[in-house]
Amino acid sequence: MGEFYKILEKVERFQERMALATIIDVKGSFYRKAGASMLIMQNGNKIGVLSGGCLENDLNLRTGQWFDLPKEDFERLQGYTRVYDMRSEQENEWGRGQGCNGVVTVLVEPVTTVFRRQLIQVKHQMDRGLAAVSLRIINEDKQTKRAFVFEDGRVIGDKGDFKHVLDGFSFADLCDDTYLSNSIIRLVHHKRPRLVIIGAGDDAIPLAELAGQLGWSVAVADFRSAYCHRGRFPQAELCRVSSPQELLTSLPLNKDDAAILMTHDFQVDRLLLPALLKKDFLYLGVLGPIERTKRLIDDVFLPDFLHAPVGLPIDAEGPEEIAVSIMAEIIKVYRQSRKKANVACG
Fold first, then answer.
1. Could you give the domains of the chain?
2. What number of CA atoms fall less than 13 Å from residue 213's CA on the CB side?
3. pTM of this prediction?
4. Residue 134: how many CB atoms within 10 A of its CB?
5. Residues contacting 110, CB < 8 A, separation 6+
6. Do residues 319 and 287 make contact, with C-beta atoms less than 8 angstroms apart?
7. pLDDT per residue over 318-332, tens digit each?
8. Who wins on pLDDT, 300 or 325?
9. HSE-up of 154 (CA within 13 Å, CB side)?
């Protein structure tokens, strides 16, 4: 979920030449699904993966030729699609005994000045907690036309080439590829999920780090200013310090958030947990054994979204392993909720 956001961060921060490779179709079995992206940078670095190494060398060779072009020629480059048939087991074919048994179509695009600006706007929308849909057409002249439709109604790019689509379909419709013709390449850029960590103790640090690495937006809140600050949580987009009585009212929370209560202070947890239970969360976890959680709320009914003890039961030891168990459970709940709701966008 965070791979594409990491790509957008690189596009915004660095001005070197880049190419974006995106899987747009998979028939049969393959390592990644449609929508997976990889950024190939001029310095040789790559962000994201498309395969277990089957495709990367070929893509590196092809895009490497772009990076040596004069600036004017690079800016005139167009995207293209390439089909990789991984079904063959012959050494001189793409399958090379990998056993993927799939046919993969990859869209490869140079990150020109215009395309870079468009991708940065997608990132800004995701920073605001909004989703976007990007549309591409490669016309008969091999020119790539793009339009980006944002959840708040804004549209940028080659609007005229997609007028029939933009006039006829809502944002929700565009999230469902059954409404679009096969000639239109559609990519959905989901809004970033957010993890709210309530409690800024030492064991919250690896949890925040892991969530950030996975592409989640991270907010940390605590009643102790010595613990809750960007020096300890550099990846957090929000560090909020307030009294226990005002902590939740000062912290913006929404129904799509995953929240973890881990202050290690029984009286503070006893104050905060009943208030948290009145809110609607994707996931709410409480650190500590179930007996402690029941004592916090006097053994009242526990809602389905409350997970106590928090995390998958992997016999985790230490803060780092506990962070892995927590994020694994959150991701499981996140994926299941999307499938259950049949969410295409958002």
1. 3-189 (no CATH), 194-341 (3.40.50.720)
2. 9
3. 0.80
4. 21
5. 17, 18, 19, 63, 66, 74, 77, 78, 79
6. no
7. 999 999 999 999 999
8. 325
9. 12
